[in-house]
Each structure stands twice: as C-alpha cells, then as structure tokens.
Amino acid sequence: MSRELVIALDIGTTSAKAVIFELNGKLVAEAERMITSYYPHPGWVEQDPIEIERSSVGAIKDVINKANIKSEALLTLGISSAMHSLICVDANYQPLSQAIIWADGRSNSQAKALKITNGDEIYAKTGLPNHPMSPFSKLLWMKETAFESYQQATYFMSAKEYIIQKWFGRRLIDYSMASATGLFNMKTFDWDEQALALAGVDQKQLSEIVPPTEILTGIDTGIAEEMGISSDMPIVIGSADGQLANLGSGAISPGEVAISAGTSGAIRQMINGFEVSEHQETFCYAFTKELSILGGPTNNGGIALQWLKELIDYEGSFDELTLEAEQVAPGAEGLIFLPYINGERAPLWNQEAKGTFFGLSITHKKEHLVRAVLEGITYNLYHIGKALERQAGEPEKIFVNGGLARSPLWVQMLADVFGKEVYLSESHHSAAWGAAWTALVAVGKVDSFDEIKRNIPIEAIIKPNEYNHQIYAEAFKKYANISRDLAKYF
Q1: Per-residue model confidence as pLDDT tens digits over 207-261
Q2: pLDDT band at 45; cut points 50, 70, 90
Q3: CA 182/CA 287 separation, integer angstroms
Q4: Can you tell me the distance from the alpha carbon of 109 to that of 144, in angstroms, rounded to the nearest whole number?
Q5: Which is nearest to 415 in space by CA: 387, 395, 432?
Q6: pLDDT at 3 exceeding the cut of 80
Q7: What totals of helices (H) and strands (E) does the chain contain, helices first?
Q8: Could you tell me which residues are beta bridge partners of residue 17?
Q9: Residue 366: Cβ within 10 Å count
Q10: CA–CA gap between residue 395 and residue 261 (Å, rounded)
C-alpha cells in the first residue's frame, strides 16, 4: 500500500511555510521561505506580492525535496494565510501596489473617525472592530488620500487571493478571509453594500466568496512542475490562520480555547453562529456557514521579546534569553510591563497605545526585564481572554501553539496565569495541520472537521501551579488597572 500524505501551505507574516503530515497529524517534513517586510514611512508595513507568491512556491518545492517523496504520495494540499492584507491589482492581475499587511497603521485616522460615525453599525454586521489592520480602513485611507493605485485598480485582493489567481486563474476568497476584510456581512454571507459604498468599491472588484472546502483544479502546469506536485492533485482553498489554528489544535467545541503566540498573538474560540461584543472588544469571523471564530488578536507577542533582546544588546539565543527569567520569582519583584510597543489591537483597539515598564527600581536587573516582558505578554493574552470569557463563558481547555510555545518556561507561565491546564501539541504547526485537515475533509478522505480531535498528537499537558496563580492573579489586577489608567494618555 502506498504512503498517504497531505501537504499544507501556511502563508504567514514573516515567512511562507510548507508542511507535510501523515494522516494522523504526525509531522513528516517542514520548510520555510522568508518574506521581507518594508517600512517606507512611519507606521507603514508592506510586502511584495510577487515575493510572497515565489516564497510559497519555493517552500512547497523545498518540503517535497526534504521529505524525499514522490508526488503520488500526496493526496491533497490545503492553504492557510494571515489575514488583513490588501493589494491593488490591474485588469491583467498585475499588482499596482505592494501588499499592505495587517501591521500597517496608515489608516489610523480613518479607523478613529469610523468609530464615531458608522463604526458600531458596520461592526455589528461584519464582526471586525474598527482598526487600521482592517482592509476596510485601508480602503477608506486610499479613497480619502486619492491613492494612485486605488484609483487605477480593477480589483482588490489579499495576498492569498493573488496567489490563487496566479496559480489557477480564478478570483476566489474563502469565508474567513472575506470576513477579515471588514466588507463582509456575516448575516447575509455576502459583501456588505454599506461598507462597499463607504470604501468606494464595487462588488465586481472583489472576489467570489466560497467555503473553505472549495477544491481548486487546473493549476498552471509550469507552477506545478516547479513545486514538484502533480498538476491534477486537488488543492483546497482552506481558510485563515486563526480559524485553522483552532481546528489544528482541536479547539473546536464550546469551552475549548486556542492561544497562538508567535511574533503577534491571539486567543480564540469557535462558536455556532455570529456574535459581537458590546464594546467592540473581540472579533467574530466566519469559518463555515455554521461555525465562526470569536476572539482577539494582539500585536505584541514574541516581537516584544525580540525588542528587548535588541534593546539590551543580548548576544545569546532567544532560548538563552528566556532562561534568564528563571532567576526571578513570579511577579518579577513588582515590575510590570505593558507590552504595547507596536500599538495594540485587542483589548484596546488603539494603534497609538505605547509600551510601559511600571515599578522599576534600582534593584531590577536584565533578568527582571526579561521576566516582566514574558509576563506582560501573558497578562495581555489573559486580558483579551477575560473579554472573550464575557461572551463565551469560562474556558474549559486551553490549547497553545506558536513560537513562544516552544519555551517550557513560558508555557508554564501561561498555565499559571490562566489557572488552567494547557495542552501542548507535538507539532507547533497547528494552522498548517488545520489547513491539511480541511483539505482532507474537502476531498472526502475524512468525514468531518470534528474527527481531527482523534488525530492531534499531544506532547504534554501543563498543569498550573496554584501558588503561582495566586501571585499572578494579584499582579494582573494591578496590570489591568495600569492599562486602564494609562489609556487616556495614548
């Protein structure tokens, strides 16, 4: 019997990753091609769509070579992608602009203005809080500034849509990526006429909306050959990385929460239907017509640790840096870090938020700073989690994935702050496994999304330390009060 494998493409902020799995979720091979971010003006963050597409092709080629397998072993391929990118494209599908990614803050004034005009009404229909990460806000900026690429554009696409059009000659967008634009009405499952009118965009300029199980065929034969795959292998459109990270973690039932902690971070829970929060604290994006994902993202995950490493000119590795924190007891001897160094999304939704060390004293050393930064990242996720809890109830199980999850110290800290057991997957590629599983559902190899629960290798279950939890509970009260009090100065 021939070996049966599935491949996933995970298009992230810093890289395109390709991962090959066995059907039980066991990792076979992984490969990565980096993606360059450009900062042409303060607050602007852009990437080259052509580089994103080339990195995606290259990652797939690399992982197949690394696994040393024949294309016949691959059943299907599923796609995961970061949300909120926007590209202006001409009639021949050539980019007129760079990909403006989620971290770009140029539309901050438009997002702020929206909050006091139509913002609540738009949020109630789309589930996307008013924030410059939103492609809707970016389009408002383009319209108001008479951005040349916007004026010349025939179509508007995300990076994922650009790749699909390049490979298959079709303009398609899945439910989740559509709902992440701020232009998608979650009640009608179609583009929202009010949002389109405000953005100055016609529905014909946007892609056809399809479910995550949409099978793509007819890939360009040259691209398939370059990748090393069969041109008739079914490729499945998949979803956004957030929804797929929950699926790939097994966090798809009520009470099951997934935390992603990489460069940025998020805490999310699957729900039936559509729900928004009273104060725009959380997002609600579609996965299927029945399932949505409720949660909040943070701009400040591992990027805060990277910032500290560069600030103190630390020459060791990130693993060595985090180990510095082991010298300090929980609570960092009263030092509290608000990690808003990159502005903030949930729970503040304020791009002008700033990071702060509170409680510095002459006795604090670099190890205290490291501990405080790690704790600040965790408090912030807990802060978002409390907003999520007000809507979805107290979490019963917490699953964690992402780069920070590779740190035993931080995963224990997470369990201690939340006061809950944390389930750590054997693979840190939850979004990729979610994309692969979606593809398997689409081609009929597996029966349902729920069945993935029996196919997630769990590396460990981290139990909370009750003594540490009590220390963190008191420290978080102070953290939340400081965050609230300083918010008026941002």
Answers
A1: 999 999 999 999 999 999 999 999 999 999 999 999 999 999 999 998 999 999 9
A2: very high
A3: 15
A4: 11
A5: 395
A6: no
A7: 16, 23
A8: 10, 32
A9: 15
A10: 18
Answer for the pair 301, 262: CB distance below 8 angstroms, yes or no.
Answer: yes
β-bridge pairing 256-261 and 397-401:
parallel
CA dist., res. 3 & res. 23, Å (int): 10
The residue to which tokens 């004034």 are assigned: 109
Q: How far apart are CA 302 and CA 285, in angstroms?
A: 24
Q: How far is CA 403 from the centre of its chain?
A: 13
8 Å CB contact between 38 and 205: no
Residue type, 9: L
CA angle 90, 57, 293 (to 5 degrees): 80
Give the span between the Cα atoms of 126 and 187, in whole angstroms. 8
- The whole-angstrom separation of Cα 65 and Cα 80 is 21
Could you tell me which of 427, 446, 488 has the C-alpha nearest to residue 21? 427
Q: How many residues does the chain have?
A: 490
The DSSP letter of residue 116 is: T
311-345 pLDDT, tens digit per residue, is: 999 999 999 999 999 999 999 999 999 999 999 99
Q: Which two tokens stand for residue 120?
A: 């609540």
Place of tokens 């949930």: 346
Is residue 108 within 8 Å of 43, Cβ to Cβ?
yes
293 is written with which tokens?
């994902």
Find residue 21's DSSP bridge partners.
6, 27
**End-to-end distance of the chain based on CA atoms, in angstroms?**
62
Lookup: tokens for 149: 């690429």
> CB of 450 within 8 A of CB of 252?
yes
Q: CA-to-CA distance for 324 and 320, rounded, in angstroms?
A: 7
**CA 145 from centre of chain:** 28
- The tokens describing 170, both together, are 């079709």
Residue type, 423: Y
Burial label for 362, CB within 10 Å (0-12, 13-18, 19+), is: exposed
- Whose structure tokens read 């979803």? 239
Unique residue bearing structure tokens 């290259």: 58
Contact present, 49 and 55 (Cβ < 8 Å): no
Q: Which two tokens stand for residue 174?
A: 């899945």
Across the strands, what pairs with 284?
Answer: 294
What amino acid occupies position 125? K
